[in-house]
Fold each of these.
Amino acid sequence: MKPEDSLDPALSAAPPTPFEWMGGEDRVRALVDRFYDLMDIEPRYRELRVAHGSTLDDARQKLFWFLCGWLGGPQHYTERFGHPRLRMRHMPFAIGVTERDQWLACMDQAMGETGVDPALRERLRTSFFQTADWMRNTPGSP
């Protein structure tokens, strides 16, 4: 960027990371909280909720830490646990198409309800799908 470009509001208005675009830690926390609240109350996410066990507290905190870093913000997760190794850490849980699709639908609903910018929401949908699809580990998952 040239020095004169910094005076152009159109060029300086775009946040440099999805984390900042979303609005920082408070907005990531709101997204994660709504995601787990929906998982807990919406019958259409039943299989996903069952896969998380009796409490969501640990998963809620870890997803918040992970998303902060994944979106380009503070690396809370890696500071505590090292590299996320998502697939390895999720191997104990049966993840098929149903769980993938429920996770994606629940996250998309949470993004909509917490006011994630539509352009960012679309980008995140694509990234979340790629990651969630890669996490599938049950036999016969297409």
Amino acid sequence: MLVNLDTAYEDTTAAELSLALDTPEQPALHLLDLGRLTRLGRPGTRLQLRLLGASHQVVLDGPDGGLIETVACLPGRRPELPASLADPATGYRFTARVRQLGPARLSECAARLRRDLAGDPYALVGVFPGGPDAITALRVGRPGGRDAAGAGRIGWRTWHAYPGSGEVVETETVVAAV
């Protein structure tokens, strides 16, 4: 799903981002509620993709617990986006990388994401004012698809494009279905 957002983004470079697993649900500029999807985990698992002015949030809620992943510019929190984080006890695995791209390559990357994810029922792409390359995109991995996380697991990828700094932040998360 492709949405044009009416508010400027609050984070403008990769260096402003943090990963938080302890932040409550934030007000969303737009959200994609995937409901209770038995195809993406155990029956009763609810998944919601949320676009924030300060980046993104994924809300996962299941019969055995839940998880709220926030990658955003978070007031009161020191910016720190780890390259990787794993918690074997919960099955949570997160990776992030920042790519520095020239204007033409960043524009190509943003155009590809808009094109490839616009009609995907498991994806949400927000285009911020100021140009089509200022985007945040999220996509849930589908069983049998190239982003499949595996049996009993759910995964998602995100992209945050910052034309002003020439950066694209890519994250990937895999978690045991809760």
